[in-house]
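In this supplementary section we document a worked example of the pipeline. Step one takes a protein sequence of length 453 as its only input; no multiple sequence alignment statistics are reported here. Step two produces a three-dimensional model, which step three serialises into structure tokens for compact storage. The input and output of this example are shown verbatim.
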Amino acid sequence: MKIGKVLIANRGEIALRIHRACQEMGIRTVAVHSTADAAAMHVRLADESVCIGPPAARDSYLNVAAILSAAAITGADAVHPGYGFLSENANFAEMVEAHGLAFIGPRPEHIRMMGDKIAAKDAMRRLGVPLVPGSRGALASVEEARAVAAEVKYPVLIKAAAGGGGRGMKVARSEAEIEEAWRVARTEAKAAFGDDAVYLEKYLDRPRHIELQVLADTHGNVVHFGERDCSLQRRHQKLVEEAGSPVLNAAERDALGAQVTRALRELGYRNAGTLEFLWQDGQFAFIEMNTRLQVEHPVTEMLCGIDLVKEQLRVAAGEPLGYDQSEIRFHGHAIECRITAEDPDTFAPSPGRVTTYHAPGGLGVRVDSALYSGYAVPPHYDSLVAKLVVHGVTRSEAIARLRRSLAEMVVDGISTTLPLHRAIMEDPEFQAGDYTIHWLERFVARRTAAAAG
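The serialised model returned by step three reads:
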């Protein structure tokens, strides 16, 4: 099908990112927005805009009826969900397609499958993708949790089947802790996701979080664009991402990529997706798949020189990829910092008016942001306000370029995490690539203790 107009069912920097890709392809855009985002940059630049509700996300960006009505009245051909909000809602994808629109994302059945952590792990097990040792499905009782934990050995992690973002996750380091971890994880899972199903897996004490970016068309072609190392996290929220990982070599990347693309080809997957793994002692273990464009996709684009949003649009239009794995090249090293409107020490949200905004520039520097001087960051949504991404011939050059860019960047009027990112870049362990998913928590704790005297 020909896509001539895309409704962007999102906001902020990702809405602007999608708009720019559409403009370069000659595709018109429709921005939907809440009343709080009437002056947002994606609304200002889109070809058309429709207000879909008041500030609360449930009344606007999660309002399926309003979004589909906006698509109908503007004559949109397709809907791009971005990330977050409705991007991994299988019912929304089905409704988009039922209304004769192209959904710029995976098939609803795959969104539904991968949204259930247990179903996702079962599918990957069948397809030969390595997993973290643990239960084969949801735990029926605390007695079953004890039995599985005894088999895989402590420490273990009890996780919500429908979860994400660290909610509904509890560690048990001994049999004495298993019942409390089981109870708390189920309670949190029910409160956060409306589903108290939990499963158990071995808790790895020093893993790295490594994910693989994939893209599949409707003609049976599947490729990957290499890995991203997303181990720098605080409370399971990513702050810094690298492509590629400092601990992997080309042979390991190729082996994982071949395994994953083979599995997704057999699954009949479509469009973009990311498979997330824990890596420890040279071994990969699948943890989940995100059936959407990732926040950190620009770091991959800087490494490969391929516009992933444009590729999503082409796949949604039914076009073949037009290249195979051997034609994808990885050049140098790229690093991304997620800049959020939060206090850099306490991480308290800091909405408000931006009085001065200056983005860094120069060779190999990219800033994805919807900020501008005078813009009022609303308190109703995620705190991400900018992504600073740099590329270098080597990792050391990328770090030097990022240090320089962070020093140039100015966001006044609100607090941001810029000072924290500057401190991370100066740390010798980060510079050596010597970190795990637990490193940043300890780094923040040391920084807080030092500031306290």
